[in-house]
Design brief:
The complex is a heterotetramer, with 2 copies of chain A and 2 copies of chain B. By secondary structure, chain A is α+β, with helices and mostly antiparallel strands. The longest helix of chain A has 19 residues. Chain A starts with a strand and ends with a helix. By secondary structure, chain B is of the alpha+beta class. Chain B has a 5-stranded mixed sheet. The termini of chain B are far apart. The interface between A and C is medium-sized, with 29 and 29 residues.
Chain lengths: ~150, ~90, ~150, ~90
């Protein structure tokens, strides 16, 4: 039931253990995002994540709580990094615990889809040809919109 | 009346500022409430780069850490941020 | 790209580390199922999982490969236990690595939904009022059917 | 002709057998190919419990580790399994 904004790498095993705790629900879903070595057509050697700290914390806490209510989660966690990240490093981790698999998996998907478009983080890619801000994707906006129209499954 | 303005990402970079206080005593004395649109207009008077940066189609504005529409009313001590669409995750 | 059928508890951290390896894709989704302390209205104190070993291995390998093709996975893993399981123990773990989050998450969901209805395992619950075989659920059959009609997202 | 029969879960329990060889020399000499339906019929002759257990509506049959329809043809040395719907995961 918590959010972490951090510059350090995400310890996925420790996050998982803490999420599940002593008495797990029946269903635990997680998602981890990593820095890719490419973006569309060009190579990426490093990523810088700028963020708006106070707002990011608020947005992530609200979206975690919203997913928890919608899918009846007994536990959830969102970890997002900021600062300079090398290729193959973790960027984001979300986890959800529920009574049934559908809820746990959908909650992770909802948290990720909402986070992508609503949480104030901005990626700046560095590559052999220079630096550039990452443009937002229409596909992310479309995935986000699904949650407003779709019935809970 | 004074508020805090914050700029992020490409907007911060293009305008060379990340945070500053904006005094709105003159416009807040008028009868109409001061909204985000009025502040965009005021900041656009700072020069061509400001006008261009603040009028890009996908600009997002957040008032006290929540995304708002352009007609949101701004009060003394508020924090108003401008930035491009988010690209985290 | 592998299946494990085992009587031992699932080491989730070790499975995750092995799935991701040295060069992760951009998106990793996992699902873990645990033994619940209840089933519908009655309490459960222990679970016994009977299975058909040769067929179970075949079915799980085929469904992993099928998910990998459908969602372009760079890596996947399915671990399923058999034998006697105490409450709160792991039953099943699936993991998928893809270039994008939608593919990784959907692959986990597909693997779990298909596994529930197609893999030859049978649960027998033990509780204060005796033992009984778990009945299959219509909701599982319905979730399974979605994948035949739904477009890849 | 001989095949291996396997029974699982409630079916194994109800019938008290988990695996046995079934000789089908007599029926395989007929002109029609031997299918799963013919084997169900043969096993149903073993008694009322067999008839009942093998004719429950949700019975699943797997031939050589793949779920098949009732008209699947069975050959020498095949492994044919009967069981209730799966409940793993």
């Amino acid at each position: 039931m918590s959010v972490s904004l951090q510059s350090e790498a995400i310890d996925v095993a420790a996050e998982y253990a803490q999420l599940v705790g002593d008495s797990p629900g029946a269903a635990v879903a997680t998602f981890t995002g990593y820095v890719r070595d490419h973006s569309d057509a060009h190579a990426v050697t490093e990523l810088e994540l700028e963020h708006y700290p106070e707002m990011a914390r608020n947005v992530l806490e609200e979206l975690g709580q919203s997913a928890a209510e919608r899918f009846g989660l007994s536990s959830w966690r969102i970890v997002h990094r900021f600062g300079r990240l090398a290729v193959s490093e973790t960027i984001v981790w979300v986890g959800a615990v529920a009574d049934h698999r559908g809820e746990a998996i959908s909650a992770c998907e909802l948290m990720m889809d909402t986070l992508k478009t609503d949480a104030p983080f901005w990626k700046r890619e560095q590559g052999p040809t220079g630096e550039q801000w990452v443009a937002s994707r229409d596909s992310d906006t479309e995935r986000r919109a699904r949650w407003q129209s779709r019935e809970t499954q | 009346m004074s508020i805090t303005i914050k700029l992020f990402s490409a907007l911060r970079e293009a305008l060379g500022e990340s945070e500053f206080q904006l005094d709105l005593s003159d416009i807040s004395e008028a009868s109409a409430p001061v909204d985000v649109a009025a502040i965009k207009k005021r900041l656009s008077q700072r020069g061509a780069e400001w006008k261009e940066a603040l009028n890009q189609p996908n600009l997002v504005h957040a008032l006290n850490h929540k995304v708002v529409f352009i007609d949101a009313v701004v009060s003394e001590g508020d924090e108003l941020a401008f930035f491009p669409p988010m690209t985290g995750g």
